[in-house]
Amino acid sequence: TSLFQSAPSAPLDPIMRLFEAFHQETRPDKINLVVGVYTDAQGRVPVLRAVQEAERAWIDQARPKQYRPIEGTAGFRSGVQRLLFGENTAVLQAKRAATLQSVGGTGALKIGADVLKQLLPDAIVAVSDPSWENHRALFEAAGFTVRSYPYYDATRQDVRADAMLDALRGLPRGSIVVLHACCHNPTGNDLDPAQWRAVVDACVQGGLVPFVDMAYQGFGDGLEEDALAARLFAEAGVDFLVASSFSKSFSLYGERIGALTLVSSDPGTIGRAEALAKRLVRTNYSNPPTHGAAIVEAVLQTPALYDAWTEELAGMRHRIHDMRTRLVQALDAQDLGRGFSAITRQKGMFSYSGLTPTQAEALRARHGIYALDTGRICVAALNPGNLPRVVDAIADVVR
Ligand code: PMP
Prior knowledge:
45% helix
């Protein structure tokens, strides 16, 4: 018998399962509301203008395809830090932060988890209830026990900030708390600034280690606004980690580009933190890929490209918000016995629509429209062309 006979059956998570089912779906008018991918008004994944220009310039230079530094290039790293913390802020001046290029936001979470496992082998990891499916799996794969903290109230369709704070206060010192910086996945419901301050305070008081997952910077209220959590932790002077993803904000999904930023309460130790992370990268995949990082670096470091990028990013943000408004208007016009206005208060690509698992199943079976059983839909995949069908289909399964 084969060695692999005894491989444990490892089912895909629901997102990847439905993603594959969608690709096998034969109805030509199928609609994918499963994965977090932004499509434009014509339903295409955009190649941003700034990205195209940076790519063209990169190719024109015909640079040799050398190995890159384990941690990425200096220009990439400083660009990411500026995006996270702002120009010349105290945390950067004090040299308390180290940034490493990563294989997407997921790679940043994994390297960060491996760093933490070395330093806090017995720590509990707490993730929001609910959270992105991969959070629990990833931290468990890194060897941690994962718990959840209350986050979402389905009845009020809002954040349960008080219950969340109570849970954080109950965690043992040295626990790791995974926080969604903005555009909470899957609910779309974010903490407001006052609630963030309370969360930061609870983490500081409780000696917790925050791991800020920032996969959607620029899709919530804006690049600066969406960085609030990272900036508050930086001001608080604690040790924490940030996983940045540029998959969505640069529309570079398949390039697998992100960054891990380690922030130390003591500048004297940041070199050790970086060395440990580099060691973990070295024994994983040795050094990171070039293309996505070269593009992101060029955009972040070239003022004209940066301006073009922020403008287009704002355009994506506004288009999603517009689709939320239109979705709610169209659903409310159907008189379905419940209101949908909570969807317009949500931020980012996702929305907890309130659809039940049975309704989500019916949406797939009867209409070829794919949404998660939790009712999470990707609002960023809606456009004026597919919205009427989505609305009619939702109305059909809800009635
Ligand atoms: N964290 C969250 C909350 C996400 O939604 C995602 C993307 N779905 C990621 C991390 C990972 O992003 P990437 O594709 O860059 O690995």
